[in-house]
Write a sequence for this structure.
């Protein structure tokens, strides 16, 4: 794998997909359909998926591709693969809240090693470089011209005053009860994979998820967080969250800065 080329391609495809998404987001109206699992899908999901999938297959034809919007890809048994959520946070998109992202990642031997998370409405983009370190880019987000970049890293948390980020659309009593075990200085809510990125930049220390997610929801954010020195572990036994599981479904998990003293469930 040429990781410099991977970084270039993932970044470019994320930006181009983001442009398509924003065209639809800013329109007066857009089509919303319901998938078999009753989750919503929009024309923006489908347009972004078509663009990203075509670009990845052209650039990396020998690597398996798993993408949320192509159900036939979910039957694969793979441990090394590219994985895509072309529009993570569809509910945020539909409600025009802006906390949606384009997620593209590479999983190697069951672990996300490279990824890009682009939030076009928020104008924030995070990705791993050729050696796996994570950075945030600012500027105009031109597909072929990299703007100003800053390497990011988790902060050293104060366990007596933690910053916690939780889901905006999937907050529940179980999550609040778990967070209640910690000494929390402040809490924030965010949608989609941006929660991983807030831990990666040191804007938060802890992100627990006690709810259903799929690997395409988490892989890119997981890669960005790990490239910034963070960790993502299973909720039940605090072992690393792995990928390539049957059906690509995740257990509950905790994303955190290494200095956080984790509580049991």
């Amino acid at each position: 794998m040429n990781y410099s080329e991977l970084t270039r391609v993932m970044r470019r495809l994320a930006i181009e997909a983001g442009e398509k998404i924003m065209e639809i987001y800013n329109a007066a109206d857009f089509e919303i359909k319901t998938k078999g699992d009753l989750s919503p899908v929009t024309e923006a999901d489908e347009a972004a998926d078509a663009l990203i999938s075509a670009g990845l297959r052209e650039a990396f034809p020998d690597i398996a591709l798993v993408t949320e919007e192509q159900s036939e890809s979910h039957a694969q048994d793979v441990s090394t693969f590219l994985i895509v959520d072309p529009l993570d946070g569809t509910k945020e998109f539909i409600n025009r809240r802006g906390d949606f992202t384009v997620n593209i990642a590479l999983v190697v031997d069951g672990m996300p090693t490279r990824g890009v998370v682009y939030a076009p409405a928020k104008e924030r983009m995070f990705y791993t470089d050729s050696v796996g370190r994570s950075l945030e880019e600012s500027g105009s987000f031109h597909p072929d011209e990299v703007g100003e970049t800053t390497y990011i890293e988790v902060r050293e948390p104060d366990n007596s005053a933690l910053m916690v980020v939780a889901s905006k659309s999937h907050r529940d009593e179980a999550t609040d009860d778990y967070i209640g075990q910690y000494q929390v200085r402040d809490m924030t809510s965010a949608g989609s994979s941006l929660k991983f990125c807030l831990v990666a930049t040191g804007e938060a220390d802890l992100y627990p998820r006690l709810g259903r997610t799929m690997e395409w929801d988490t892989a890119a954010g997981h890669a960005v967080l790990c490239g910034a020195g963070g960790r993502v572990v299973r909720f039940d036994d605090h072992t690393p969250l792995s990928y390539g599981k049957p059906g690509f479904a995740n257990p509950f998990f905790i994303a955190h800065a290494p200095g956080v003293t984790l509580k049991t469930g």
Remarks:
- DSSP finds six helices and 14 strands in the chain.
- The helical segments are 3-25, 43-59, 90-94, 173-179, 194-200, 215-227.
